[in-house]
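Hey team,

Filing this mostly as a record. A colleague (T.K.) asked me to run one chain through the structure pipeline before their review meeting, and I want the input and output archived in the tracker in case anyone asks later how it was produced. No errors, nothing strange. Just documentation.

Input sequence:
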Amino acid sequence: EIKSELELRKVSFSDCFDRESLERRLLSARSSGVADPSIIDKFNKNNLEATFKGEKLDVSDDDISKAVGADGTLPGGMPPDMLKELMSNPELMELLQSVKMQDAMKLMMTGGQEALQKAMEEDPETYEIVMKLNAIMGKGMGGGSSTSGGGAPPPSDAFQ
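Output structure:
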């Protein structure tokens, strides 16, 4: 089961030789938000196909369950129910189709929170789009953005 989730997240575990090292690798991947960035490409493909057919993109429970890890969450730590609720927000769905947003998500999935934080500090456009995501998610979940003080917020606010 641990190996299956590591494979789902595209995390190498060839250097892990016991259960304890596999568990550490999985916990590290979960906490950093590491995931398979091809999820974004699949989203784009499905969205394009739905648009071509004149339909709205619909992500089924089966699609979501394929991405759920053994801890019951999606890569990045988001509960499936939260994803379903957020996907009903047209403003969020529009944002998720942004190339810049998708680049930020892929960066988070491959490089973790530190890589996204660095990108936000170096690129004002990335900072702005992640802040917009934080605001939308805060409204969508009945809260507000969790930034405090100046500087870039922790990227985990947006992706977890």
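Quick notes for T.K.: The mean pLDDT is 79. DSSP finds nine helices and no strands in the chain.
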